[in-house]
Every structure is written in C-alpha cells, then in structure tokens.
Amino acid sequence: MRILIHQAQIAGYPAGPTDLLVHDGVIAHIGALPEATADVVINQPGLHVSGGFIDVFSHFNDPGLEYKETLETGAAAAATGGYTRVMVLPNTQPALHSKAQIEYVVQKNQLLPAQVLPIGAISKSCDGKELAEMYDMRSSGAVAFSDGIRPVQNGQLLLKALQYVKAFDGVVIQQPIDDGLSKHGLIHEGIISTQMGLPGKPEMAELLSIGRDIELLRYTGSRLHITGVSTAAGLQLIRQAKAEGLQISCSVAPYHLHFTVNDVQAYDTNLKVNPPLRSPQDVEALKAGLLDGTIDCVASHHQPHEYDAKVCEFEYAHYGMAGLETCYGAVLTAVPKLDGDAIAKIFSANVARIFNLSAPIIAVGRPAELTLHCPHQT
Predict the structure, then answer these.
(1) Structural contact between residues 113 and 81, judged by C-beta atoms closer than 8 angstroms
(2) pTM of the prediction?
(3) Is 250 exposed, middle or buried (0-12, 13-18, 19+ CB in 10 A)?
C-alpha cells in the first residue's frame, strides 16, 4: 500500500509544503510526486505532518477498573486524538507495580491501534509506603515511574526512588499535590470557593510539593518530571530549577490552559479535577510558559469515568475528565499562537527526549509514525 500525503507542511522541513510518500508503513520519499504514484492520496489544505503524538499521563484503568476504560478503548481514543503512543498510569487493580503487571500491558500492544507504554508504580499498590521493584519493571518495559494520581507524599520514599532510577537514567513523574494541605479540598481556594461553600485546595499545596521535590532532585542529581502544574508560582519554581541546571521537566493539562475556577460556579462536576482549575492569572501564566518553552509538553491527563462517578453531587464526584480525543483541539483553541513546529515539539519530540523514547523521526527509510493535523482548523 502506497499512501501519498500531498502538499503538507512537514515538521523539520522549513522550505514549505511538499509531498510525503509512505510505502508499506515506511517513509519512501519526501518531495514533489505525481498523485498517480500512490494508491491513496491525502490532500487537505493547511495540513501539517509531525512525528506521532506521545501522551505523558493517561489513565486506562486496565486491569481491574475496566468499567471506566480498557486498554482497547483507551488506545482507540488515543488514535482518534492523533496519538501514536500513550504512557498509562499504574493506578489499576492490581497496580502496575510488578514485572508481571508491566508485561500484561506490553503484550496487549500487538492488538492496539496506538502503542501503550506502562508507567511503573514507585510504591507497592501505589500506597506510598514501600518501594516497588523498579528495576524489574524497567527491564519489562516500564518507561517511567510514578504513583500517578496518588503522588508520593513520603519524602524518604521519593528520595529513594530518585536515587534508584539513576542506575538506568530513569525518570520519576510527580503531580504537584500536597495531601496535607489539599486532601479535603474540592476546588481552588479563594473567593469563589468561599462563595460556593466548598472547601478549597490552596495554591500553597502545589508550591510545597514542587519545592520539596526540587530539593530532593537537587540532592540526588536525578531526573524529575512534574505533570499537571497549575499555578504561576509553581511554574516559576520550575523555571528557576531549570535555570539552575537541574534535570527537571514539566507538562500542563489542557484544561488548565482553557478553564478557570470561575467556570466551576455552576457546580459542573465535569470540571472537578486535581490539581483544581485555578485563577485567570494562573491560566495566562501557563499559556506564556508553554510559548516560552518553560513547559516542555502537554499531558492529556485523560481520566475517564463511568456515568455515576460524575452525575452526582459535586462533593461526591470523582476527579478527572476524558481528554485524549480533544487534547489537541483544546490546546490550540487556548493557545492559538502555537505553530506547526511548536506543536511537533510539545506533543511529540520533547516527550521522546524527556523519557528516553525512540523519537518518531520524519526521514526516508524511517517507520511512518506520523500525526496529521491542521493547526488553523481546531
């Protein structure tokens, strides 16, 4: 099968739109070609081609919570959203905390439309008490380590994890959440939380979490990725750590670029997320951070739920929302200044670099792991 992508702007090729021919899954030619060369021709005005999108933080709930999502439905959602690879969270039942559980996910890839990359748990059962067998999981295919939606609160345990992954140049992923300050909160702490009569999650909970993790990173000289950064002050701490030369990176969720705490006033449970939606000033700072490169990539924070988990009182609704299908469109709507090359970096190239993954390179003879998108048609 020969597929011709006609007159598209290809990431890394500044000369202008050109043709790209794929033959049996491999890039066979880049440059002008007659349409008769191919069995299938894709001709869409304004089309851009980048290396396949890679997501950093998605919850597929498989094994054990398949009523929310499965590897099959999650991979289908990823493919619909333009993703060719997805890093999935270990918060399953049982957790992805052993060699056997990692191999279960890896072996499923033979039948999935997008490659699923397991994130191994830092602690057994993601309970933050005892270090899991990280080296065995790494050997079996774990691409990073995290306790996912239950970020490590125990400083000693996180210290050990950061030291442990240095043996194989691994990366630890943390959400910036301090449970001691935010466990009982429901939305961003401020005037609106008071008006709504809801307990708040203070900005300080994010600052303390990021500050502590940076200190542990500085002490160990390891590698750390903060995902779901939601405040201007938290982003500034990361910016300073980068300037210092620490091996730190970060990602932002699409809803933190689009919605603010003002949007929660209707008690819309779809907007109950953790970390919570923040102030308009925080949103503007995150947009600026994405444009200036402080934020390395976008993570969908895809966290689907069954009907009853969201159609209930705000207090009892589960945190999170589905996001793989809409992540690209949401980000481009929120930050329309992003061009094709920037999109290729924050959705693909930067993720591969941070997590030591094989980069989806667009070159003759390389596998055609591509995402086609139109930046001006969100």
Answers:
(1) no
(2) 0.95
(3) buried
